[in-house]
Amino acid sequence: MDPFAVGIVSLILIVLLIWTGCYVGIALSLVSFFGVWVIKSDPVIAVRMMTLSVTETVKHVDYAAIPTFVMMGLIVGKSGFGADIYEVANEVFRRLRGGLGIATVAANAAFAAVTGSSIAAAAVFSRVSVPEMIRYQYSKRFAVGVVAGSSVLGMIIPPSVMMIIYAFVAEQSVGDMFIAGIVPGLMLAGAFVVAILVMTKIAPRFVGAGALVQRAAPEDPLSVAQMALKITPIATLIAIVLGGIYTGFFTAFEAGATGALTAYVLSLVKRKINFKAFKEILVDTGHITANLLFLIIAASMYSRMLGIAGLPFLLSQWLDHINLGFPWLMTVYVLLLLFLGTIIDTGSIILVCVPLFLAAIESMDLSLVWFGLVTVVGAEIGLLTPPFGLSCFVIKTAINRRDIDLNDVFLGAFPFALVMLGVLVVLIAFPRLSLMLL
User: Fold this and answer.
1) 3-class DSSP state for residue 190?
2) Which of 111, 158, 123 shows the shortest CA–CA distance to 398?
3) Coil, strand, or helix at residue 418?
4) Whole-number Å distance between alpha carbons of 16 and 11
5) How confident is the model over 329-381, as pLDDT tens digits?
6) Cα–Cα distances in angstroms (integers) from residue 400 to residues 111, 120, 137, 189, 391, in the given order
7) How far apart are CA 438 and CA 432, in angstroms?
8) Helix, strand, coil distribution of the chain in percent, nearest 5
9) Of 90, 159, 193, 221, which has the fewest CB atoms closer than 10 Å, so is most exposed?
């Protein structure tokens, strides 16, 4: 069978297997194994390819960054620091129309800078901010929508687990990816704030009556000293992790390990975590890390199979032949990201799509770091869109209210998905925004 035909069939099979519920790592590894077997007509070569993929992946020291950042995020999530940040942001923004929504975005941005997980942010702020917004007469759809929308900041503002996965697939520096993500992440947070202010003007019923008035100061407002005390843990972690990476004092692995240790010490100082909770964190870190590493190993197999089939090179040649050009290439790529985002998760999208388009992007002398930011932002839109919409499912489960169904969550998140798409277009049109700090 022609190698190119095998490559095309393998892509179709992977999407079909994932769509029918097959675990992504299993789908990638099985299709890769049989693909190499068919191309080389020898199962031994396929076994050797799989073995080489495992050994080359596991021995890479940079993969140690994954458990450290996962552990840091879990500690921060269980320590209640998210609630502290929201309380401070609420105090700062309560005088603005839509202030609670803006406070949610600001708190999510700060939370994202130390967790790297959209799902963790969605779970935390569903419990913290949704009841508060509903209590102050914000609409239910807006309340869940702003949490869903701002939760995606967890995968864009560094540190981000998805950026780590992309860095390994594209063979880029994790530190460069983190630094490049700062400006786009802040841009997206700012765009959400602007969108909330605009919605209070043009769609007041969607936002809710409570968003249209200034809230009076609470009976016991936070003092400056109290606010400083509440934000100190998050500020300390941001300074250590991102400051260490930005100054070159830490590698990404060292920053993650130092951040996890610091988060644990701070949680002990504030008496937020006991031995039982810490044991749960260790177990969850192991589960998540094993899951991610298996995905990366499977992606390595998939990339090698595609290389043997010659699909990335042939795709690049075909794009050059039809003279698709940069605008149309990125249009096709974004549409593919949006489509896959409706059926599979962000990590799977990165593992499936990136190896296909790397050769074409490199042939145009485009930055692979910039391409990574475009990929992560585009794939993250899928967290807010049906039928997959993982952040929306997490929020529905976390709030556990009969008066808010999944349809409310998706409709509430829709305006924020459009904002993300607008920011994505800006990032594509102006690549320098993603590279200005490098």
Assistant:
1) helix
2) 123
3) helix
4) 9
5) 899 889 888 887 776 777 778 887 888 888 888 888 889 999 999 999 998 88
6) 23, 16, 19, 27, 14
7) 10
8) 80, 0, 20
9) 221
Please name the amino acid found at residue 39: I
Q: How far apart are CA 132 and CA 235, in angstroms?
A: 24
Q: What are phi and psi of 21, to 5 degrees?
A: 105, 0
CB burial of 35-65 (b: ≥16 within 10 Å; e: otherwise) equals: bbbbbeeeeeebeebbeebbeebeeeeebbb
pLDDT at 417: 93
8 A C-beta contact, residue 33 and residue 298: no
15, 383, 386, 437 from 344: Cα distances, Å:
9, 9, 11, 32
Residue ranges of domains in the chain: 3-435
Q: Residue 201: is it exposed, middle or buried by C-beta count within 10 angstroms (0-12/13-18/19+)?
A: exposed
Mean pLDDT in the chain?
A: 83
Q: What is the pLDDT of residue 430?
A: 93
Number of H helices, E strands in the chain: 22, 0
What pLDDT shows up at residue 61? 65
Q: Which of 52-56, 101-105, 211-215, 302-306 has the highest mean pLDDT?
A: 101-105
**10 versus 201: which is more confidently predicted?**
201
Alpha-carbon Rg for the chain, nearest whole angstrom, is: 22
pTM of the full predicted structure? 0.81
CA dist., res. 434 & res. 271, Å (int): 39
- Which is nearest to 133 in space by CA: 210, 199, 189, 222? 210
3-state class (DSSP) for residue 267:
helix
Instruction: Identify the DSSP state of 431.
Output: T
Q: What does each C-alpha distance from 279 to 284, 285, 288 come to in angstroms? A: 9, 10, 14
Q: Which of 24, 21, 66 is nearest to 287 (CA)?
A: 66
Q: Copy the structure tokens of residue 409.
A: 């969550």
What whole-number distance in Å separates Cα of residue 72 and Cα of residue 116?
9
Per-residue pLDDT band for 216 (boundaries 50, 70, 90) equals low
Q: Which residue has the tokens 């942010």?
A: 121
